Amino acid sequence: MASTDKSPGPTPAKGNEPPPGKPMSMGQHMIDKGAMMLQSLKPVKQFSQHLCSFAIYSHDMSRQIETHHYCTRLNQDFLQCAVYDSDDSNARLLGVEYIISDRIFEDLPDEEKKLWHSHAYEVKSGLLISPRVPEMVAMPELENLAKSYGKFWCTWQADRGDRLPLGAPALMMSPQAVSPGLARPDLVHHRDAKYHVDSDSYKTSRLEIPEPEMISPFADYWKQHAKGFAIDIVDTDMKLTAPFP
């Protein structure tokens, strides 16, 4: 059965190839345009910000990816983000990240906390940016994010060449100040060049951003225990009744 830690057979792609399939027909384009005119698409239209950073596979921290989060805020303590591999029109949807404030995080069970990562270092190091948004404008949201935690599930491991979402989902971690959580310099340089920014310069402007008095020892689990998490999909007997109301 599928596992996060195992490639699902020979990967069917080499390089950054698109998913398999025929080009869209003119008829399909017309159907899509018509649907866009007639349907509200309300959840999608609530995405209000674009964040760009990097993520590391919990089960294999030698693998890092650039991520583009398109987020909507449901309330002051909760954001939900669709995560893509770029900001291009043909970007691949890699997964989803949920972001909660430190206040909400502290109320989670300890076992649940192990699946979450902190954002303080990511923000204050300059790795997390709001592309094309002036730093002064982005600062209030950066201050919110510095005191937040995220749970990011990757369902499409496109970096290993998968042209389709294959295998089990993978839990992702955020970059940190210690190895093996250090962000790869080549990835950072490539991102910075694209948006004409200098991540290092943000360290000074973000020096005074408040952060949690203490990062939870249950978050960023690998830092304390040198272990990550992988998902193994196994056969199981189906429950005939729900275990909850």
UniProtKB/TrEMBL annotation:
Q: PANTHER family of this UniProt entry?
A: OIL BODY-ASSOCIATED PROTEIN 2A, PTHR31360
Q: Specify the superkingdom.
A: Eukaryota
Its gene is: OBAP2A
Tell me the protein's name.
Answer: Oil body-associated protein 2A
Q: Which organism is it from?
A: Stylosanthes scabra
Q: Which family does it belong to?
A: Belongs to the OBAP family.
Residues of the region (Disordered) are 1-28
